[in-house]
Description:
Bound molecules: nicotinamide-adenine-dinucleotide
CATH topology: Rossmann fold
Largest sheet: 7 strands, parallel
Number of domains: 1
Helix content: 40-55%
CATH superfamily: NAD(P)-binding Rossmann-like Domain
Number of helices: 8
CATH class: Alpha Beta
Number of strands: 7
Strand order of the largest sheet: 3-2-1-4-5-6-7
Amino acid sequence: MEKRHAGKVAVISGAAAGIGRAFAVRLAKEGADVAIVDINDAGHTLNEVKATGAKAAAFRCDVAVPDDILRLGDDVEAAFGRCDMLINNAGVFPSRPFADIELEDWRRMLSINLDSVFLMSKRFVPGMRERKWGRVVNMASNSFGQVAPGLTHYIAAKGGVIGFTRALASELGPEGITVNAIAPGFTRTEGTLAREPNFRGLTSEQLYGILAERQAIPRPPTPEDMAGTLSYLVSSDADLITAQTFYVDGGLVRAS
Ligand SMILES: NC(=O)c1ccc[n+]([C@@H]2O[C@H](COP(=O)([O-])OP(=O)(O)OC[C@H]3O[C@@H](n4cnc5c(N)ncnc54)[C@H](O)[C@@H]3O)[C@@H](O)[C@H]2O)c1
């Protein structure tokens, strides 16, 4: 693979599993050094990334906890010197009917899926500003653009991510920093496989198939599909792409 990210340092949250692991492996194969961030043990990802020959380290961090992020920032700078690409991928998506969502559930959802994007950006964007170059990519969800029952708190958080992405892009554009979001379709990962039963009692396996049939391109999205889009967004080919949300869902969300 072409080493198009050589010399760059990527910080990827939620990289122990699923889409985040695919992100880490893809950017490493293309030459980036990778800081793997997760609340859980990320040894598996670390081994995969190191096998590519890239420089890598794993950091335990709960992205909902401000002090964890401050410590992470210091640790990443000690290990790698800087962060050029911030990938805010960590997220949770428990499905629950609106009637059963308590304020505590709502706040937990927003803190992990939205506050974290703010806090990580606060910590890592200043260094990008100093160097006049940077990439921020936030994980949204295509559930923002389609009917998805049982996810009011999740979709509110992801809608916030899309709004934050646009607004931050407007501020940072003149400083050489792009800010974009990826909105995946329902993708086979540890997280979606663990969420049983799904909406209306469906298993995840059933749901991958049902949604794929409604897509323009009728196959379930994979973590590697997301990684291809990420690689483009952080590359110099995307120098003029900012404030965008890329729906990577086979055309499930479309104008008509
Ligand atoms: N998989 C999908 O179908 C899908 C669809 C739309 C959006 N997304 C979004 O993509 C992202 C990744 O999803 P996934 O399916 O790979 O999830 P996953 O559950 O497979 O992996 C998520 C990773 O994030 C980590 N994590 C969770 N909470 C954390 C915290 N507080 N601090 C640090 N790490 C934490 C987990 O330990 C895990 O390693 C999420 O933001 C999710 O909302 C996923």
